[in-house]
């Protein structure tokens, strides 16, 4: 099932993925899936990245922190479009190397910095950033509250944070809640609601948007691509990993169809 993995295995999986993200086939599939070719580790589409750029309203001399940036999507895109400085953080160094090389090659208007760091222990001064973004990161981490608190510490008083997350639909029965856990990302389940977690961490919720319909459409395209290129993906990734990807996509689709899971965008500011 999609949720059956531990943190160490997840870290190793992402590390191995980033070693291949510049492969032509994977970039071709990603362009078809999401409209990007950065080696995305989230489900953020180009359309959503453009909307995120407008919501963040960044400009030259401002600073953006991308948590769980992987190989740079959508942080590098946002920096290129807005002219802001961008700092990309994650733990697998393989992804950050790819991101830094891409940032350098695209000659971004602002400064691009990468830092190997956990989202729960960000090594930056208090109030260092004008904006923070992370895409489908919290649903891959156990201690979401620590991450939200760390982000709150490094945002300035007038800053904003926008992030997406896959989460369990509210109001499910105990049995359906368990099915949701089995359908979704490994650490999607929370002990408390996102509203309460944000409140405890010192954030004020400005807006919350349901992206589930767009997520479903993206997954349908993804499934078609994975089936069409299955043989090539097996050769590139190995049969086990190709099958895991396929099963994950199918599991997410089932979870959305049954109403067990959803994908949402949160817009928050310091409380």
Describe this structure as you would to a colleague.
It is a single chain. The chain is of the alpha/beta class and 271 residues long. It has a single domain, classed as Rossmann fold. Helices cover 47% and strands 20% of the residues. The protein has eleven helices and seven strands. The protein has a seven-stranded mixed sheet with strand order 3-2-1-4-5-7-6, with helices on both faces. Helix 4 links the parallel strand 1 and strand 2. The protein is globular, with a radius of gyration of 18 Å. The protein starts with 6 loop residues before the first helix and ends with a strand. The model has no long low-confidence stretch (mean pLDDT 93).
Indicate the structural class. Answer: alpha/beta
Low-confidence stretches: none
Number of contiguous helices: 11
Largest sheet, if any? Answer: 7 strands, mixed
What is the radius of gyration computed over CA atoms, rounded to a whole number of angstroms?
18 Å
Number of domains: 1
End-to-end Cα distance, whole Å, is 38 Å
- State the CATH superfamily name: Vaccinia Virus protein VP39
CATH fold call: Rossmann fold
Helicity, as a percent range: 40-55%
User: So what's the CATH class?
Assistant: Alpha Beta
The whole-number mean of residue pLDDT values reads: 93
Strands of the largest sheet, in order across it? Answer: 3-2-1-4-5-7-6
Order of helices and strands: HHHEHEHEEHEHHEHHHE
Defining key terms:
271 residues, 7 strands, 20% strand, Rossmann fold, alpha/beta, 7-stranded mixed beta sheet
């Amino acid at each position: 099932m999609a949720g059956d993995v531990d943190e160490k295995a997840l870290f190793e999986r992402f590390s191995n993925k980033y070693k291949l993200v510049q492969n032509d086939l994977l970039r071709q599939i990603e362009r078809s899936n999401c409209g990007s070719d950065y080696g995305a580790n989230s489900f953020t589409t180009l359309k959503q990245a453009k909307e995120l750029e407008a919501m963040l309203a960044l400009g030259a001399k401002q600073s953006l922190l991308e948590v769980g940036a992987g190989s740079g999507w959508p942080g590098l895109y946002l920096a290129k479009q807005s002219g802001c400085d961008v700092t990309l953080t994650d733990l697998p160094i393989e992804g950050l190397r790819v991101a830094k090389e891409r940032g350098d090659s695209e000659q971004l208007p602002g400064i691009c910095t990468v830092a190997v760091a956990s989202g729960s222990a960000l090594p930056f001064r208090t109030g260092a950033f004008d904006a923070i973004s992370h895409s489908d990161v919290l649903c891959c981490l156990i201690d979401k509250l620590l991450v939200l608190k760390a982000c709150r510490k490094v945002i300035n008083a007038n800053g904003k944070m926008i992030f997406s997350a896959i989460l369990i639909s509210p109001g499910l029965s105990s049995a359906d809640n368990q099915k949701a856990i089995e359908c979704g990302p490994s650490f999607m389940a929370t002990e408390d609601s996102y509203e309460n977690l944000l409140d405890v961490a010192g954030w004020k919720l400005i807006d919350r948007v349901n992206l589930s319909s767009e997520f479903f459409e993206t997954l349908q395209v993804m499934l078609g691509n994975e089936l069409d290129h299955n043989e090539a993906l097996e050769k590139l990734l190995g049969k086990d990993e190709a099958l895991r990807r396929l099963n994950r996509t199918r599991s997410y689709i089932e979870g959305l169809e049954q109403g067990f899971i959803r994908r949402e965008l949160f817009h928050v500011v310091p409380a």
